[in-house]
Amino acid sequence: MTVAKRSVFRIEPRYVIVLATFLATFTAYVERVGFSIAFTDLAKEAGVDESVKGTVLSAFYWGYALSQIPGGWAAQQYGGRIMLLLCFACWSAASILTPTNARHASAIILARVAVGVAQGFLIPAVHTVLSQWIPPHERARAVSLTTSGMYLGSASAMLVLPWIASLFGAASLLKVVGGLGLAWLVLWLVVGRDIPHRETVIPLSTLDHRPGIGGSGYKGRPAPTPYRRMMGSAAVWAIVVNNFSFHYAFYVIMNWLPTYFNHILKVELNSLGGAKTIPYLVMFLMSNVGGWAGDWLILKRRNSTATARKTVNTLGFLSSAVALMLMPGAGAHSVAYGVVVTTLTLGCLGFSRGGFSVNHMDIAPKYAGMVMGISNTAGTVSGVIGVAVTGYILDMHGGADNVQGWYTAHAVSAAICIQAMLVFNIFARGERLFD
After folding, report:
1. Which residues span the membrane (predicted)?
2. Which residues contact 105 (CB under 8 A, 6 or more apart)?
3. How many CB atoms lie within 10 A of CB 66?
Protein backbone atom coordinates (compact mmCIF):
# COMPACT_ATOMS: atom_id res chain seq x y z
CA MET A 1 0.00 0.00 0.00
CA THR A 2 2.85 2.35 0.83
CA VAL A 3 4.40 1.81 -2.61
CA ALA A 4 1.05 2.46 -4.31
CA LYS A 5 0.58 5.73 -2.48
CA ARG A 6 4.04 6.88 -3.44
CA SER A 7 3.35 6.17 -7.12
CA VAL A 8 0.06 8.11 -6.99
CA PHE A 9 1.44 11.27 -5.38
CA ARG A 10 4.95 11.24 -6.83
CA ILE A 11 5.67 14.18 -9.15
CA GLU A 12 7.75 13.28 -12.17
CA PRO A 13 11.16 15.01 -11.93
CA ARG A 14 10.85 16.38 -15.46
CA TYR A 15 7.68 18.23 -14.43
CA VAL A 16 9.58 19.84 -11.57
CA ILE A 17 12.22 20.96 -14.08
CA VAL A 18 9.56 22.44 -16.39
CA LEU A 19 7.98 24.30 -13.47
CA ALA A 20 11.37 25.64 -12.39
CA THR A 21 12.20 26.86 -15.90
CA PHE A 22 8.73 28.42 -16.15
CA LEU A 23 9.48 30.32 -12.93
CA ALA A 24 12.86 31.34 -14.40
CA THR A 25 11.29 33.11 -17.38
CA PHE A 26 8.55 34.46 -15.09
CA THR A 27 11.13 36.04 -12.77
CA ALA A 28 13.27 37.43 -15.59
CA TYR A 29 10.30 39.27 -17.08
CA VAL A 30 9.22 40.59 -13.70
CA GLU A 31 12.66 42.22 -13.65
CA ARG A 32 12.34 43.68 -17.14
CA VAL A 33 8.90 45.18 -16.55
CA GLY A 34 9.96 46.25 -13.07
CA PHE A 35 12.83 48.32 -14.40
CA SER A 36 10.59 49.91 -17.03
CA ILE A 37 8.09 50.93 -14.34
CA ALA A 38 10.81 52.14 -11.99
CA PHE A 39 12.74 54.15 -14.56
CA THR A 40 9.59 55.75 -15.98
CA ASP A 41 8.91 57.25 -12.53
CA LEU A 42 12.57 58.07 -11.83
CA ALA A 43 12.97 59.77 -15.23
CA LYS A 44 9.81 61.79 -14.69
CA GLU A 45 11.11 63.04 -11.34
CA ALA A 46 14.48 63.94 -12.88
CA GLY A 47 13.02 65.59 -16.00
CA VAL A 48 14.73 63.21 -18.42
CA ASP A 49 13.48 63.52 -22.02
CA GLU A 50 12.03 60.71 -24.11
CA SER A 51 15.10 60.08 -26.27
CA VAL A 52 17.32 59.56 -23.21
CA LYS A 53 14.65 57.33 -21.71
CA GLY A 54 14.56 55.29 -24.91
CA THR A 55 18.35 54.91 -24.89
CA VAL A 56 18.32 53.70 -21.28
CA LEU A 57 15.44 51.29 -21.86
CA SER A 58 17.14 49.85 -24.95
CA ALA A 59 20.54 49.38 -23.22
CA PHE A 60 19.43 46.03 -21.80
CA TYR A 61 19.07 44.62 -25.31
CA TRP A 62 22.63 45.50 -26.31
CA GLY A 63 23.91 43.19 -23.60
CA TYR A 64 21.20 40.62 -24.26
CA ALA A 65 22.10 40.44 -27.96
CA LEU A 66 25.79 39.96 -27.25
CA SER A 67 25.34 36.87 -25.10
CA GLN A 68 22.70 34.83 -26.99
CA ILE A 69 25.00 32.71 -29.17
CA PRO A 70 27.83 32.57 -26.59
CA GLY A 71 25.16 31.51 -24.11
CA GLY A 72 24.17 28.59 -26.33
CA TRP A 73 27.81 27.54 -26.65
CA ALA A 74 28.41 27.82 -22.90
CA ALA A 75 25.30 25.81 -22.04
CA GLN A 76 26.42 23.09 -24.44
CA GLN A 77 29.93 23.04 -22.96
CA TYR A 78 29.24 23.44 -19.25
CA GLY A 79 25.60 22.44 -18.89
CA GLY A 80 22.37 24.39 -18.51
CA ARG A 81 22.27 24.06 -14.72
CA ILE A 82 25.49 25.95 -14.01
CA MET A 83 24.75 28.58 -16.65
CA LEU A 84 21.34 29.30 -15.09
CA LEU A 85 23.01 29.69 -11.70
CA LEU A 86 25.51 32.17 -13.13
CA CYS A 87 22.79 33.96 -15.09
CA PHE A 88 20.59 34.63 -12.07
CA ALA A 89 23.44 35.44 -9.71
CA CYS A 90 24.85 38.07 -12.08
CA TRP A 91 21.65 39.82 -13.18
CA SER A 92 20.24 39.88 -9.65
CA ALA A 93 23.39 41.55 -8.33
CA ALA A 94 23.44 44.05 -11.21
CA SER A 95 19.79 44.96 -10.59
CA ILE A 96 20.34 45.53 -6.88
CA LEU A 97 23.39 47.72 -7.60
CA THR A 98 21.76 49.83 -10.35
CA PRO A 99 21.92 53.59 -9.58
CA THR A 100 18.56 55.13 -8.71
CA ASN A 101 19.27 58.71 -9.82
CA ALA A 102 17.95 58.98 -13.40
CA ARG A 103 20.38 61.82 -14.14
CA HIS A 104 23.22 59.30 -13.93
CA ALA A 105 22.16 57.87 -17.28
CA SER A 106 25.59 56.52 -18.25
CA ALA A 107 25.92 54.46 -15.08
CA ILE A 108 22.39 53.13 -15.44
CA ILE A 109 23.08 52.20 -19.06
CA LEU A 110 26.13 50.20 -17.98
CA ALA A 111 24.07 48.41 -15.34
CA ARG A 112 21.35 47.58 -17.85
CA VAL A 113 23.91 46.22 -20.33
CA ALA A 114 25.24 44.00 -17.53
CA VAL A 115 21.74 42.74 -16.72
CA GLY A 116 21.17 42.08 -20.44
CA VAL A 117 24.41 40.11 -20.82
CA ALA A 118 23.52 37.95 -17.83
CA GLN A 119 19.92 37.33 -18.91
CA GLY A 120 21.10 36.49 -22.42
CA PHE A 121 22.27 33.13 -21.07
CA LEU A 122 18.75 32.30 -19.86
CA ILE A 123 16.90 31.02 -22.96
CA PRO A 124 19.79 28.94 -24.41
CA ALA A 125 20.36 27.35 -20.98
CA VAL A 126 16.64 26.63 -20.54
CA HIS A 127 16.47 24.96 -23.97
CA THR A 128 19.54 22.89 -23.13
CA VAL A 129 17.97 21.68 -19.88
CA LEU A 130 14.61 20.92 -21.51
CA SER A 131 16.22 19.04 -24.41
CA GLN A 132 17.81 16.69 -21.86
CA TRP A 133 14.76 16.17 -19.69
CA ILE A 134 11.75 16.29 -22.01
CA PRO A 135 10.92 13.57 -24.59
CA PRO A 136 10.08 14.73 -28.13
CA HIS A 137 6.33 14.18 -27.84
CA GLU A 138 6.16 16.54 -24.83
CA ARG A 139 8.59 19.26 -25.93
CA ALA A 140 6.14 21.58 -27.70
CA ARG A 141 3.93 21.83 -24.62
CA ALA A 142 6.91 22.11 -22.29
CA VAL A 143 8.50 24.90 -24.33
CA SER A 144 5.17 26.73 -24.69
CA LEU A 145 4.54 26.59 -20.95
CA THR A 146 8.09 27.61 -20.08
CA THR A 147 8.18 30.60 -22.42
CA SER A 148 4.67 31.72 -21.43
CA GLY A 149 6.16 32.48 -18.03
CA MET A 150 7.46 35.64 -19.70
CA TYR A 151 3.94 36.99 -20.12
CA LEU A 152 2.55 35.88 -16.78
CA GLY A 153 5.61 37.48 -15.21
CA SER A 154 4.89 40.69 -17.09
CA ALA A 155 1.25 40.62 -15.96
CA SER A 156 2.18 40.00 -12.35
CA ALA A 157 4.73 42.80 -12.44
CA MET A 158 2.16 45.22 -13.86
CA LEU A 159 -0.24 44.29 -11.07
CA VAL A 160 2.02 44.26 -8.03
CA LEU A 161 5.05 46.47 -8.70
CA PRO A 162 3.26 49.84 -9.16
CA TRP A 163 1.63 49.25 -5.76
CA ILE A 164 5.04 48.51 -4.21
CA ALA A 165 6.45 51.64 -5.85
CA SER A 166 3.62 53.74 -4.40
CA LEU A 167 4.46 52.46 -0.92
CA PHE A 168 8.26 52.41 -0.94
CA GLY A 169 9.25 54.48 -3.97
CA ALA A 170 10.21 53.54 -7.52
CA ALA A 171 13.84 52.92 -6.54
CA SER A 172 12.76 50.05 -4.28
CA LEU A 173 11.67 48.01 -7.31
CA LEU A 174 15.29 47.47 -8.35
CA LYS A 175 15.98 45.78 -5.01
CA VAL A 176 12.73 43.81 -5.07
CA VAL A 177 13.30 42.25 -8.49
CA GLY A 178 16.92 41.52 -7.64
CA GLY A 179 15.74 39.73 -4.52
CA LEU A 180 13.30 37.64 -6.58
CA GLY A 181 16.18 36.57 -8.80
CA LEU A 182 18.17 35.43 -5.79
CA ALA A 183 15.13 33.52 -4.50
CA TRP A 184 14.88 31.61 -7.79
CA LEU A 185 18.62 30.92 -7.53
CA VAL A 186 18.04 29.13 -4.21
CA LEU A 187 15.21 27.11 -5.78
CA TRP A 188 17.44 26.03 -8.66
CA LEU A 189 20.20 24.99 -6.28
CA VAL A 190 17.69 22.57 -4.77
CA VAL A 191 15.94 21.14 -7.85
CA GLY A 192 18.18 21.90 -10.83
CA ARG A 193 20.05 19.10 -12.57
CA ASP A 194 21.45 18.78 -16.08
CA ILE A 195 21.05 15.11 -16.92
CA PRO A 196 18.26 12.95 -15.51
CA HIS A 197 19.16 10.14 -13.16
CA ARG A 198 18.97 6.71 -14.76
CA GLU A 199 15.56 5.91 -13.32
CA THR A 200 14.00 9.09 -14.77
CA VAL A 201 15.17 8.60 -18.35
CA ILE A 202 12.22 7.77 -20.60
CA PRO A 203 12.79 4.59 -22.64
CA LEU A 204 13.33 5.28 -26.32
CA SER A 205 10.66 2.71 -27.14
CA THR A 206 8.01 5.02 -25.68
CA LEU A 207 8.95 7.95 -27.91
CA ASP A 208 7.24 8.75 -31.17
CA HIS A 209 9.72 8.56 -34.07
CA ARG A 210 7.37 9.42 -36.92
CA PRO A 211 8.81 12.02 -39.34
CA GLY A 212 8.13 15.53 -38.13
CA ILE A 213 6.91 14.39 -34.68
CA GLY A 214 9.53 12.30 -32.97
CA GLY A 215 13.18 12.95 -32.34
CA SER A 216 16.47 11.50 -31.27
CA GLY A 217 15.52 11.06 -27.61
CA TYR A 218 18.45 10.72 -25.25
CA LYS A 219 21.08 9.46 -27.67
CA GLY A 220 24.17 11.25 -26.45
CA ARG A 221 26.15 14.08 -28.02
CA PRO A 222 24.82 15.50 -31.31
CA ALA A 223 26.83 15.74 -34.49
CA PRO A 224 28.74 18.98 -35.14
CA THR A 225 26.38 21.87 -35.75
CA PRO A 226 26.05 22.59 -39.51
CA TYR A 227 26.46 26.36 -39.18
CA ARG A 228 27.13 27.01 -42.87
CA ARG A 229 24.02 25.14 -44.03
CA MET A 230 21.91 26.88 -41.40
CA MET A 231 23.08 30.34 -42.37
CA GLY A 232 22.37 29.56 -46.03
CA SER A 233 18.87 28.22 -45.39
CA ALA A 234 15.91 30.42 -46.36
CA ALA A 235 13.76 28.53 -43.84
CA VAL A 236 16.09 29.49 -40.99
CA TRP A 237 16.07 33.10 -42.12
CA ALA A 238 12.27 33.04 -42.22
CA ILE A 239 12.34 32.18 -38.50
CA VAL A 240 14.98 34.85 -37.86
CA VAL A 241 12.96 37.56 -39.63
CA ASN A 242 9.81 36.64 -37.73
CA ASN A 243 11.59 36.54 -34.39
CA PHE A 244 12.98 40.01 -35.14
CA SER A 245 9.53 41.32 -36.09
CA PHE A 246 7.68 39.74 -33.16
CA HIS A 247 10.10 41.17 -30.63
CA TYR A 248 10.21 44.57 -32.31
CA ALA A 249 6.48 44.97 -31.71
CA PHE A 250 6.49 43.26 -28.32
CA TYR A 251 9.45 45.12 -26.83
CA VAL A 252 8.13 48.48 -28.03
CA ILE A 253 4.83 47.82 -26.26
CA MET A 254 6.40 46.32 -23.13
CA ASN A 255 8.90 49.14 -22.60
CA TRP A 256 6.69 52.05 -23.64
CA LEU A 257 3.45 50.82 -22.05
CA PRO A 258 3.86 52.86 -18.84
CA THR A 259 4.45 55.97 -20.96
CA TYR A 260 1.46 55.07 -23.16
CA PHE A 261 -0.80 54.80 -20.12
CA ASN A 262 0.50 58.09 -18.70
CA HIS A 263 0.41 60.24 -21.84
CA ILE A 264 -2.29 58.72 -24.06
CA LEU A 265 -4.74 57.21 -21.59
CA LYS A 266 -3.92 59.92 -19.00
CA VAL A 267 -3.81 57.50 -16.08
CA GLU A 268 -1.15 56.23 -13.72
CA LEU A 269 -0.49 52.50 -13.72
CA ASN A 270 -1.20 52.10 -10.01
CA SER A 271 -4.69 53.55 -10.52
CA LEU A 272 -5.76 50.83 -12.97
CA GLY A 273 -5.80 47.99 -10.47
CA GLY A 274 -6.09 44.53 -12.02
CA ALA A 275 -7.02 45.94 -15.43
CA LYS A 276 -3.41 46.72 -16.26
CA THR A 277 -2.50 43.02 -16.07
CA ILE A 278 -5.15 41.89 -18.56
CA PRO A 279 -2.98 42.39 -21.71
CA TYR A 280 -0.18 40.20 -20.38
CA LEU A 281 -2.54 37.60 -18.93
CA VAL A 282 -4.23 37.26 -22.32
CA MET A 283 -0.84 37.04 -24.02
CA PHE A 284 0.10 34.26 -21.57
CA LEU A 285 -3.06 32.36 -22.49
CA MET A 286 -2.87 33.01 -26.25
CA SER A 287 0.75 31.93 -26.52
CA ASN A 288 -0.35 28.52 -25.26
CA VAL A 289 -3.48 28.58 -27.46
CA GLY A 290 -1.30 29.23 -30.53
CA GLY A 291 0.82 26.17 -29.78
CA TRP A 292 -2.21 23.98 -29.21
CA ALA A 293 -3.86 25.35 -32.38
CA GLY A 294 -0.87 24.34 -34.48
CA ASP A 295 -0.85 20.84 -33.01
CA TRP A 296 -4.62 20.58 -33.57
CA LEU A 297 -4.25 21.52 -37.24
CA ILE A 298 -1.60 18.81 -37.66
CA LEU A 299 -3.09 16.00 -35.58
CA LYS A 300 -6.83 16.54 -36.06
CA ARG A 301 -7.17 18.42 -39.35
CA ARG A 302 -4.27 16.51 -40.95
CA ASN A 303 -2.62 19.67 -42.23
CA SER A 304 1.07 19.50 -43.04
CA THR A 305 3.41 20.93 -40.44
CA ALA A 306 4.32 23.83 -42.73
CA THR A 307 0.66 24.69 -43.41
CA ALA A 308 -0.19 24.60 -39.72
CA ARG A 309 2.70 26.86 -38.73
CA LYS A 310 1.97 29.33 -41.54
CA THR A 311 -1.75 29.47 -40.69
CA VAL A 312 -1.14 30.27 -37.03
CA ASN A 313 1.62 32.72 -37.90
CA THR A 314 -0.51 34.56 -40.48
CA LEU A 315 -3.49 34.93 -38.15
CA GLY A 316 -1.29 36.20 -35.34
CA PHE A 317 0.76 38.76 -37.28
CA LEU A 318 -2.06 40.15 -39.42
CA SER A 319 -4.39 40.68 -36.47
CA SER A 320 -1.64 42.20 -34.34
CA ALA A 321 -0.80 44.68 -37.13
CA VAL A 322 -4.42 45.85 -37.17
CA ALA A 323 -4.55 46.08 -33.38
CA LEU A 324 -1.31 48.07 -33.24
CA MET A 325 -2.92 50.81 -35.34
CA LEU A 326 -5.91 50.99 -32.99
CA MET A 327 -3.83 51.71 -29.89
CA PRO A 328 -2.83 55.35 -30.54
CA GLY A 329 -6.44 56.44 -30.96
CA ALA A 330 -7.47 55.11 -27.56
CA GLY A 331 -7.08 58.54 -25.97
CA ALA A 332 -10.10 59.76 -27.93
CA HIS A 333 -12.27 57.00 -26.47
CA SER A 334 -11.71 55.71 -22.95
CA VAL A 335 -9.23 53.98 -20.68
CA ALA A 336 -11.21 50.75 -21.08
CA TYR A 337 -10.89 50.98 -24.86
CA GLY A 338 -7.13 51.48 -24.49
CA VAL A 339 -6.82 48.40 -22.31
CA VAL A 340 -8.91 46.36 -24.79
CA VAL A 341 -6.84 47.25 -27.86
CA THR A 342 -3.59 46.74 -25.94
CA THR A 343 -4.90 43.33 -24.88
CA LEU A 344 -5.86 42.52 -28.47
CA THR A 345 -2.39 43.48 -29.70
CA LEU A 346 -0.48 41.38 -27.19
CA GLY A 347 -2.92 38.47 -27.45
CA CYS A 348 -2.49 38.30 -31.23
CA LEU A 349 1.29 38.52 -30.90
CA GLY A 350 1.20 35.70 -28.37
CA PHE A 351 -0.88 33.55 -30.72
CA SER A 352 1.70 34.00 -33.50
CA ARG A 353 4.30 32.16 -31.41
CA GLY A 354 2.52 28.95 -32.37
CA GLY A 355 3.91 29.56 -35.85
CA PHE A 356 7.47 30.83 -36.14
CA SER A 357 8.57 30.11 -32.57
CA VAL A 358 7.89 26.38 -32.79
CA ASN A 359 9.26 26.03 -36.32
CA HIS A 360 12.91 25.75 -35.28
CA MET A 361 12.00 22.41 -33.62
CA ASP A 362 10.36 21.29 -36.88
CA ILE A 363 13.28 21.91 -39.19
CA ALA A 364 16.19 21.26 -36.83
CA PRO A 365 15.18 19.28 -33.71
CA LYS A 366 18.78 18.26 -32.98
CA TYR A 367 20.02 21.84 -33.30
CA ALA A 368 16.95 23.69 -32.07
CA GLY A 369 18.91 25.45 -29.33
CA MET A 370 21.39 26.93 -31.78
CA VAL A 371 18.69 28.00 -34.25
CA MET A 372 16.90 29.60 -31.30
CA GLY A 373 20.12 31.37 -30.30
CA ILE A 374 20.55 32.76 -33.80
CA SER A 375 16.94 33.89 -34.16
CA ASN A 376 16.78 35.20 -30.59
CA THR A 377 19.82 37.35 -31.31
CA ALA A 378 17.83 38.98 -34.10
CA GLY A 379 14.88 39.36 -31.75
CA THR A 380 17.10 41.08 -29.22
CA VAL A 381 18.62 43.42 -31.78
CA SER A 382 15.08 44.43 -32.69
CA GLY A 383 14.54 45.40 -29.05
CA VAL A 384 17.56 47.70 -29.19
CA ILE A 385 16.33 49.25 -32.42
CA GLY A 386 12.60 49.39 -31.72
CA VAL A 387 12.71 50.84 -28.21
CA ALA A 388 15.25 53.51 -29.15
CA VAL A 389 13.59 54.38 -32.48
CA THR A 390 10.23 54.80 -30.76
CA GLY A 391 11.77 57.31 -28.36
CA TYR A 392 13.22 59.34 -31.23
CA ILE A 393 9.94 59.22 -33.17
CA LEU A 394 8.03 60.54 -30.15
CA ASP A 395 10.60 63.33 -29.66
CA MET A 396 10.37 64.27 -33.35
CA HIS A 397 6.64 64.82 -32.88
CA GLY A 398 7.09 66.97 -29.79
CA GLY A 399 6.91 64.34 -27.06
CA ALA A 400 4.73 61.49 -25.85
CA ASP A 401 1.61 63.67 -25.58
CA ASN A 402 1.35 63.99 -29.38
CA VAL A 403 -0.76 61.13 -30.71
CA GLN A 404 0.74 61.48 -34.20
CA GLY A 405 4.07 60.29 -32.85
CA TRP A 406 2.41 57.15 -31.51
CA TYR A 407 0.65 56.54 -34.84
CA THR A 408 3.99 56.79 -36.66
CA ALA A 409 5.77 54.48 -34.22
CA HIS A 410 2.99 51.89 -34.34
CA ALA A 411 2.77 52.07 -38.13
CA VAL A 412 6.44 51.05 -38.27
CA SER A 413 5.71 48.08 -35.99
CA ALA A 414 2.63 47.07 -38.01
CA ALA A 415 4.52 47.20 -41.32
CA ILE A 416 7.30 45.04 -39.88
CA CYS A 417 4.73 42.47 -38.72
CA ILE A 418 3.12 42.27 -42.16
CA GLN A 419 6.41 41.80 -44.02
CA ALA A 420 7.39 39.08 -41.51
CA MET A 421 4.17 37.21 -42.21
CA LEU A 422 4.83 37.36 -45.96
CA VAL A 423 8.41 36.14 -45.58
CA PHE A 424 7.30 33.21 -43.43
CA ASN A 425 4.56 32.19 -45.87
CA ILE A 426 7.03 32.15 -48.76
CA PHE A 427 10.12 30.57 -47.20
CA ALA A 428 9.14 28.59 -44.08
CA ARG A 429 9.36 24.78 -44.21
CA GLY A 430 7.87 22.08 -42.01
CA GLU A 431 10.15 19.09 -42.61
CA ARG A 432 13.52 18.36 -41.07
CA LEU A 433 16.31 20.04 -42.98
CA PHE A 434 19.46 19.34 -40.95
CA ASP A 435 19.01 15.94 -39.25
Report:
1. 56-75, 82-102, 108-130, 142-164, 170-191, 234-257, 277-299, 311-329, 335-356, 368-394, 406-428
2. 48, 52, 55, 56
3. 16
Specify whether the CB–CB gap between 163 and 270 falls below 8 A: yes
In the chain, the largest separation of any two C-alpha atoms, in whole Å, equals 74
In this prediction, residue 435 carries a pLDDT of 66
Encode pLDDT of 266-317 as tens digits.
887 667 777 878 888 899 899 888 888 887 888 788 888 899 999 999 999 9
Helices (H) and strands (E) in the chain, counts: 17, 0
Contacts of 287 (CB under 8 A, 6+ apart): 144, 147, 148, 151, 350, 351, 353, 354
CA distance 261 to 30: 19
Query: What's the whole-number mean pLDDT along residues 407-432?
Result: 95
Cβ neighbours, 10 Å, residue 29: 23
- State the Rg of the chain over Cα: 21
Nearest to 400 by CA among 18, 5, 8, 52: 52
Q: Are 394 and 409 spatial neighbours (Cβ–Cβ below 8 Å)? A: yes
Residues 420 and 28: their CA atoms lie apart, in Å, by 27
282-294 burial by CB neighbour count: b if 16+ within 10 A, else e? bbbbbbbbbbebb
**What are the C-alpha distances in Å from 431 to residues 152, 224, 294?**
32, 20, 15
- Kindly report the pTM of this predicted structure: 0.78
